[in-house]
């Protein structure tokens, strides 16, 4: 019943979803994966549907996983570069949303500014799915918690330590979803790179309901000690080239190396949403080491994308 109620909903930010709804999507992703490995490579629940994929920023995992997910569900996915649309010549986002709603059954959008997604969602009559914005990356977080549930067998009570840029869009989604799922989230970041106050407030409000703990610290060792997962992301995201050197200087002490993983303990797994800048935010021996589950994360983007589309598209 919970999943049925999600039909037609947007997925712009996870603070709009309850913990139960988030968990149901994650479990649906695991079921999609089980059926995939049982030989059901095509589950045609969206046969005859069309998905518009608007990408303002380049992508490997998000683009391919959504494209393949749509195909395996029987839908037709169309990749639409921002500059290939009339958006690139001044047509408004609102008009684009209205027109696409007459053609397709869902819009997947990867944009620079989060406000563009919100505007798409306001004016579209079909579900709008956030495939990344500067504020959040809900699909990534759903796939990551799916991976943790698959490997650890549970989510509530686990501790995820994020080391690096506290203003990171993936971290924002991990914070909100983790708090709603009862996962303790610790963030080690410089004072000048704190999480967005709106996101932190939403995570702390959710944590009061579930008993999860939210910790923000400048000490990476305090964050990782006893953690079940150590997570990092690139230090300089697309569009941040102007502040790249300053961010690298600030984040130098936050590199995830073997010493930091030893402090976390042997049961901790290493996570990264990719692409990785090896030698910068993580060393080769960690990302290629026995504690790394980054390739499981990458694969699970396909299965969680199938779950998202199957659940939200009418």
Structural account:
- By secondary structure, this protein is of the alpha/beta class.
- It folds into 2 domains: 2-136 and 301-312, 3-Layer(aba) Sandwich (Rossmann fold); 140-297, Rossmann fold (3-Layer(aba) Sandwich), CATH 3.40.50.1370.
- 45% of the residues lie in helices and 13% in strands.
- It has helices spanning 2-5, 19-37, 61-72, 93-103, 114-123, 138-152, 169-181, 197-210, 220-224, 244-251, 258-264, 284-287, 294-312; strands at 50-55, 76-81, 106-110, 128-130, 159-163, 184-188, 214-217, 229-232, 269-272.
- Strands 7-6-5-8-9 form a 5-stranded parallel β-sheet.
- α4 packs across α5 and α6 crosses α7 (169-181).
- The longest helix has 19 residues, at 19-37.
Give the secondary structure arrangement, pairings included.
Elements: H1 2-5, H2 19-37, E1 50-55, H3 61-72, E2 76-81, H4 93-103, E3 106-110, H5 114-123, E4 128-130, H6 138-152, E5 159-163, H7 169-181, E6 184-188, H8 197-210, E7 214-217, H9 220-224, E8 229-232, H10 244-251, H11 258-264, E9 269-272, H12 284-287, H13 294-312
